[in-house]
Amino acid sequence: GLPGNVTVQCSFVYGLCDRNARQTLWCELTHCTDLFRQYPWVIMGDFNVTRLGTEHSSSRLITKAMNEFNQAVLTAELEDLKSTGLFFTWSNMRSGAGSISKKLDRAMGISDHSPVTIHMRNRQEYRGRPFKFLNFWAENEMFMHVVSQEWAKAHAGPPLVVIHKKLKCLKARLKEFCRRPDSKVVELRARLHQLQQDLQGGVVSPSATEQERQLRIEVACAARDEEAFFKQRSRVQWLKEGDSNT
Q1: Residue bearing the bigger pLDDT, 91 or 224
Q2: In the chain, what's the furthest Cα-to-Cα distance?
Q3: Contact 51, 70 (CB under 8 A)
Q4: Fewer Cβ atoms within 10 Å of its own Cβ: the N or the C terminal residue of the chain?
Q5: Which PANTHER family does the annotation name (predicted)?
Q6: At the topology level of CATH, where does 8-113 sit?
Q7: Direct distance between the N- and C-terminal alpha carbons of the chain, in angstroms, rounded to an integer
């Protein structure tokens, strides 16, 4: 809990790509303003529209969609929260004159309290637990080769003993695969973040855009393994739709 039993309300939003379809979201935000005035309220997510001309890398035009968004923000008496890191949160992944970057994701709030910071503790590692097959291993390009290689080995003894020996040898080989895909995702995201900072700073090689595209693909693949890993460990019913459950 927070010190002093402070209550904070948090809403997560996703704005549809169509301007008219976002009208419902703006109406809901302004409606919730009166409901959530009792406590500090923060709204965060992908609004799929910019607020200011400076939030578009190649255009300063203020569109009707932007005006509608700003009117909703004004009516709800919201303010952008201070943020760090990359300014633009979306890119069309093109190079040259066709490259476009925008700030589509943001966090806004309304509060008469001091800012609240939440620190998550690192999960304690458990030792000595029994072997557990991780489903995402089956997606590894070496998985079938390792299984076939171990299953082809000859072992002496009755059939059940032979199977036991094969499984035991296979278990040791599978343990050589990555056991924590989330650590791989962290490393890949850090490399992508650094490259994006270099791109935004303008000091990059001609192949930097292609490197970013390839890194995005690697991050997406690693994120799928990460999601499968945590989904297998979770005892709750995960959402079937939406963004990755990270």
Answers
A1: 91
A2: 78
A3: yes
A4: N
A5: BNAC02G09200D PROTEIN, OS06G0205337 PROTEIN
A6: Deoxyribonuclease I; Chain A (3.60.10)
A7: 22
